[in-house]
Amino acid sequence: MILVTVGTQLGFDRLIRAMDDLAVDLSLPVLAQIGDGEYVPRNMTFQPLIQPAEFDELARVSQLVVGHAGTGTILTAAKFKKPAVLLPRRASLGEHRNDHQLATAHAFGSRAGIFIAMDEKDLGKMVTQALEFEAPLEEESVSRHELQKSITDYLHRWG
Amino acid sequence: MFIAEMEAVLSATKGPILAASSGGGHWEELMLLRSAFEGFQVHYATTDLKIAEHHAVECVHIIPDCNQDTPLKSIICFFSALRLIVKTRPKVVISTGAAPGFFCILAGRLLGSRTLWIDSVANGEELSMCGRLSTAVAHECWTQWAHLSCENRPAYKGSVL
């Protein structure tokens, strides 16, 4: 199953329309959280909002997460060790206040398991590549432990 | 044995800490850092009760959401943060963003708490606006990207991803 998300706030019709077109040819079922988008999908199951517990469960059983380039999407995919295809929202198309998602895509684009579609026309190619991706064995996040320890040290000093 | 037990009791009552974050990615980052708060009494502040319940967070306060485009909501959020600081009297306020978290940092600073801002891992090219304000307002301002650190304001101390 492929899980598609536009986040929990704004709609993102460009992504939903493109995935709806692709869904016809994909062998896996597609389920989309479409936010308050206006486009109504015909080839994939969808709902405006998926509750957090259910969303996590869907991510856990999915083969792939496709979404806007929001950190929630990236963190969810990382949590369940799924590949992620990201289409950044663009301010010029009225999809976001600024081009922050382009910066996010640039920052994470070279990480293993993350595939950036700069344009909705690239989505099909990125989805194919992502489905072929094999997640590496679990490794401890050294940088996360470092941050946790820094916080603990700070709290012990001032808390 | 007795000393170890006493230390355990004393460290279990350390704090309180206020950990504040908007919903969405900022909250997910805060949840990934939760183990760092072990041994401290923690109050959480966020903008969406449902996500707090989802992570089984026990002591949560809801504050209004806001952003730089909603000045009136921001004022309301700031006063809500002030009331929260007065109510909980945290020794330390930590936030992973965004604007509601910043107002908790600001309120905490004004009322005598130590304050720690951790800029979101989403901001890989430059510090967020609230992050930039936090280099002046918060006692500590950290970025999660080493190339963005600058003479400790912000400092790089690790990253959730």
Characterise the protein shown here.
The complex is a heterodimer of chains A (159) and B (161). Chain A has 159 residues and is an alpha/beta fold. Helices cover 42% and strands 14% of the residues of chain A. The N and C termini of chain A lie far apart (46 Å). In chain B, strand 4, helix 5 and strand 5 form a beta-alpha-beta unit. In chain B, helix 4 (71-88) packs across helix 5 and helix 5 runs parallel beside helix 6. The mean pLDDT of chain B is 91. Chain B has 161 residues and is an alpha/beta fold. Chain B has six helices and seven strands. The N and C termini of chain B lie far apart (39 Å). Chain A binds chain B through residues 7-9, 51-53, 56, 70-72, 74-76, 78, 97, 100, 103-104, 106-108, 111, 141, 143-152, 154-156, 158-159, and chain B through 14-15, 17, 23-26, 28-29, 32-33, 35-38, 40, 50-51, 54, 69, 91-92, 94, 114, 116, 118, 120-126, 140, 142, 144-145, 157-161.
Descriptive tags:
heterodimer, A: 6-stranded parallel beta sheet, 6 strands, globular, B: 161 residues, alpha/beta, 7-stranded parallel beta sheet, 20% strand
**Rg of chain B computed from alpha carbons, rounded to a whole number of angstroms:** 16 Å
Shape of chain A: globular
- Of all protein chain pairs, which has the greatest interface, and how many residues does each chain bring to it? A-B, 38 and 42 residues
Q: From the alpha carbons, calculate the radius of gyration of chain A and give it in angstroms.
A: 17 Å
Report the biggest beta sheet of chain B as strand number plus sense, adding barrel if it closes. 7 strands, parallel
Helical segment count of chain A: 6
The end-to-end distance of chain A, rounded to whole angstroms, is 46 Å
What's the count of strands of chain A? Answer: 6
Task: Give a short synopsis of this structure.
With 159 residues, chain A is of the alpha/beta class.
